Amino acid sequence: MPKLVLVRHGQSFWNLQNRFTGWVDVPLTEKGKEEAFKAGELLKDIRFKVAYTSALTRAQETLKIILEVIGLQIPIIKDQALNERHYGALQGLNKDRARQKYGAEIVHLWRRSYDIAPPEGESLKDTAARTIPFLERAILGDIYEGNDVLVVAHGNSLRSIIMYLEKLTPEEIIKVELDTGAAVVYELDQEGNIISKEVRK
């Protein structure tokens, strides 16, 4: 059965500084590169046929390291449909400063709710509106062909895909967190239904 593996990029400079990153193109830290290397080590048993990633450097850099560790040269498809959630007016802002500026409760709502967006930004629901059509038409197309697929993207773009695959409610997805460098390995049938799930980190 084909495998779909979702990997969150390694730690970025703004993850380290506790800042909202969104669509700002921030590179990996040394720790982030180490997390990507470890993810590659943990995925050596899977022979991916194709990889997907976002238009952002931190995801592309993570993917490059993973494939180098595994020793694979495969087609890579980059698309901004897989970009992180756009944080709008919060992008670049330290999360503690954001709580001081807007209030802890509203910042928590912006970050964790399903359908409440920050100013000028996207909610998780908005993010899903671009990730899920891309998943259905592109990524699952490879699964239906029987190929093992690697997707390296971002916390929220991947959470929206997890929500879809696992048929989670808006209340359930709020509790789902993905660590940097973590890999979620799904074994799927050729209709895209989950047979098994394993988290490697």
Automatic annotation (TrEMBL):
Role, per record: Catalyzes the interconversion of 2-phosphoglycerate and 3-phosphoglycerate.
Residue numbers marked as site, Transition state stabilizer: 154
Pfam families: His_Phos_1
Signal peptide: none
Family of the protein in this entry: Belongs to the phosphoglycerate mutase family. BPG-dependent PGAM subfamily.
Keywords: Gluconeogenesis, Glycolysis, Isomerase
GO molecular function terms listed in the Swiss-Prot or TrEMBL record: phosphoglycerate mutase activity
Pathway where this protein functions: Carbohydrate degradation; glycolysis; pyruvate from D-glyceraldehyde 3-phosphate: step 3/5
GO biological process, one term: gluconeogenesis
Catalytic activity: (2R)-2-phosphoglycerate = (2R)-3-phosphoglycerate
Name of the protein this chain belongs to: 2,3-bisphosphoglycerate-dependent phosphoglycerate mutase
Class of this enzyme: isomerase
Record EC number: 5.4.2.11
Encoding gene per record: gpmA
Species of provenance: Sulfurihydrogenibium yellowstonense SS-5
Binding of substrate, residues: 8-15, 21-22, 58, 84-87, 95, 111-112, 155-156
Active-site positions on this chain: 9 (tele-phosphohistidine intermediate), 84 (proton donor/acceptor)
